[in-house]
Amino acid sequence: MNFDKILFTIEIIGTIAFAITGVITAIEKKLDILGAIVLGTVTAVGGGIMRDIILGYLPPLAFRNPVYALTAILTSVAVFIIAFFVGKKIVRHFDVYSQVINFFDSLGLAVFVVTGINAASGCGFGDNAFLSIFVAVLTGVGGGVLRDILAGRVPKILRRRVYALAAILGAIIYYYLLEFGVFSQTVSMLIGAGSVLVIRILATVFHWNLPTIKNIEE
């Protein structure tokens, strides 16, 4: 399997993973199936659309190649139908369900961070570290931000378990592995995505959070 096929495969995996989290948010907010499709699709392709606009890659890839949006739509419909019929069973096993969703969310983040670096390089900005890392993080968190705004809640990246920080660190690791040619691109990509996933899992297990100011009025 060549690199392009590997990249396409992980992009589809990330699309499915993020679409699932979008639908779960829609279900939690008691939205109908259209709302679930909208949130699932926005979560899956929103970050990539914002990335492409910044890079000047127009129309964005999500519109040039509709396979990503179609994958998100089909995933959203499937998850909504499953939840419609077995939702009560899921609620009874909420702890397991929440961990599964957190894993899919982390997987989507990891995948889109590395594809963001690749997109910047493909558009001729590979020598610009700041831009490459910025669009990588935006690709990873942008869809989730749009999802949370549409759902009427504070975006997760501003309040939960080093979410954006994991994306930043993973992007930096992947970018400089490529810059210094330490490993092949495929191996570097796996290390970069793996670092995001590991940080997110550790943050969940050990309840890592960035500092906040609490009870300031007391």
Mean pLDDT: 86
Which segments are poorly predicted (pLDDT under 50) over 5 or more consecutive residues? none
The total of beta strands comes to: 0
Number of domains: 1
Order of helices and strands: HHHHHHHH
Helix content: over 70%
Q: Please tell me what the overall shape is.
A: globular
How does the helix and strand content classify structurally? mainly alpha
Verbal overview:
This protein is mainly α. The protein has helices at 3-28, 33-55, 61-64, 67-92, 94-122, 129-150, 163-180, 185-206. The protein is globular, with a radius of gyration of 17 Å. The protein has one domain (3-206). It is built from 8 helices and no strands.
Please give the structural blueprint.
Layout: H1 3-28, H2 33-55, H3 61-64, H4 67-92, H5 94-122, H6 129-150, H7 163-180, H8 185-206
Quick overview of this protein structure:
This protein has 218 residues and is mainly alpha-helical. The protein has helices spanning 3-28, 33-55, 61-64, 67-92, 94-122, 129-150, 163-180, 185-206. It has one domain (3-206).
How would you describe this structure in keywords?
218 residues, mainly alpha, 8 helices, 0% strand, globular
